[in-house]
Design goal:
By secondary structure, this protein is α+β, with helices and mostly antiparallel strands. The chain is built from four helices and nine strands, in the order H-E-E-H-E-E-E-H-E-E-E-E-H.
Length: 178
């Protein structure tokens, strides 16, 4: 009996190695910050795939005012991406979705979010002297998009939950006036 259990266990382990059993797990530490803003690990973890190595990358565009991009890469592939853009006063989440060519969205949280299968976008007020120009008035808005470019899963609701909390922390990094 003991020999049969030992052989069965060894066979299952060998078979699992040949067919790449699922459940490899996340063998990396979940990032604590994304674009200098703290993240809730419990909300970020379900958005990332199994893998061994995670990296985060923060970049700015060369336009003025700059767009800010943050990517989370697992094993070298971008699995979660954010894009922050300064917008004109009166700009809405629906406007932001159209601007980024995302269609078939649904409006949530009284129109402050647009959600689709692989992402979500929100827009919030952010008055700042830094971008006080005729094009971007003191009453500026900021759009923040989070999306999962490589997934086939419907993560929209999970991304919305993540973005709801993350946008509040991200806004603090912009030094918005009260």
């Amino acid at each position: 009996m003991t020999k049969w259990i030992l052989v069965s266990t060894a066979g299952a382990v060998a078979l699992c190695g040949l067919v790449a059993c699922s459940g490899e797990g996340q063998k990396y530490e979940i990032p604590k910050k994304l674009c200098d803003a703290p993240v809730d690990n419990n909300l970020l973890k379900p958005l990332l795939p199994d893998g061994r190595k995670v990296e985060t990358l923060k970049e700015f565009s060369k336009v003025s005012p700059p767009h800010q991009f943050c990517d989370v890469m697992v094993d070298g592939d971008i699995d979660l991406s954010t894009e922050g853009i300064w917008q004109k006063s009166g700009f809405t989440a629906k406007d932001a979705a159209k601007q980024t060519l995302v269609f078939n969205t649904r409006s949530t949280q009284h129109g402050t979010f647009e959600v689709w299968d692989t992402g979500a976008i929100t827009v919030f007020d952010c008055k700042t002297e830094k971008w006080n120009t005729p094009r971007y008035s003191l009453r500026s808005r900021y759009s923040l998009r989070v999306y999962a470019p490589r997934t086939e899963e419907n993560l929209g609701d999970q991304i919305e939950r993540f973005l709801t909390v993350y946008a509040k922390e991200y806004r603090k990094t912009l030094h918005c006036q009260p």
